[in-house]
Amino acid sequence: MKYPFLITIVFAASAFFFACSSGNESPGAEQNDAPKTVQISQNTQSTQTVQPAQTEFTWYTDWNKGLEAAKKEQKPVIVDFYADWCVYCKKMDKETFAAPEIKKRLAEGWIAIRIDSENRDKQGTFDGKTMTYPQLVGYFRVSGLPTYLFIDKEGKPVYPFPGYVPKEKFGPMLDYFKEELYTKKIKLSDYVESKS
Q1: Quick one: residue 23, left, alpha or beta (phi over 0 = left, psi -120 to 50 = alpha)?
Q2: What is the dihedral angle through the alpha carbons of 73, 76, 81, 86, rounded to the nearest 10 degrees?
Q3: How far apart are CA 69 and CA 111, in angstroms?
């Protein structure tokens, strides 16, 4: 080759340009929660502030840590009782919990706890009693899987709801419990039907 030095410089400059243009969007880069400023150019330049959407939520798999977080953040809790063999638990994960609108609702207003109903090695405390996860299942009278237990901001269990729920109905269900509409004698089924 005649110009190996020139080729090396061009390659290095290209790599530098690519690295600078990708910024913090590379996988694993730390995200900043501050509003981002975006430049939009169409003959003139203007600036627009974009608030980052909070669409991710974390499942707590430790009962006690999830309840501690709920108490600290003063949020209601949804507990997902599941088992690895449960077909409808997997369907909920794939179709309902993965839906962006459900993720958004959970991230913004809930603490989510996922309990493996057959895990005898883990324990949780409720009402001053320490129980294995299968004992928690019995304590809350979970009779089928999946079952969702709603706990209000005060730490009181409100309602266990069994079975698969499509995203169109699950969103209004979350709103119903978050807004504590059960205290106003509004029926869950009526509310969900009116919103879905």
Answers
A1: left
A2: -100
A3: 7
Domain boundaries, given as residue ranges, for the chain: 59-195
What 8-state DSSP symbol labels residue 24? G
Give 167's Cβ-side CA count (13 Å radius).
15
pLDDT one-digit tens code per residue, 31-42: 333 333 333 333
Tens of pLDDT, residue by residue over 54-95, are 557 889 999 999 999 999 999 999 999 999 999 999 999 999
3-state secondary structure of 74: coil
* Distance in angstroms (rounded) separating the CA atoms of residues 102 and 98: 7
- Peptide linkage before 146 cis (omega within 30 of 0): yes
**Residue in the structure block whose two tokens are 């880069």:** 29
What is the rounded average pLDDT for all residues in the chain? 79
How far apart, in whole angstroms, are the C-alpha atoms of residue 38 and residue 105? 26
**Which pair of tokens denotes residue 56?**
């991710």
Claim: this prediction has a pTM higher than 0.85: no
Q: What is the fold of 59-195?
A: Glutaredoxin (3.40.30)
Residue 151: how many CB atoms within 10 A of its CB?
23
As a whole number of angstroms, the distance between CA 9 and CA 71 comes to 58
- Cα 143 to Cα 59: distance, rounded to the nearest angstrom: 22
Is residue 153 within 8 Å of residue 170, measured between CB atoms? Answer: no
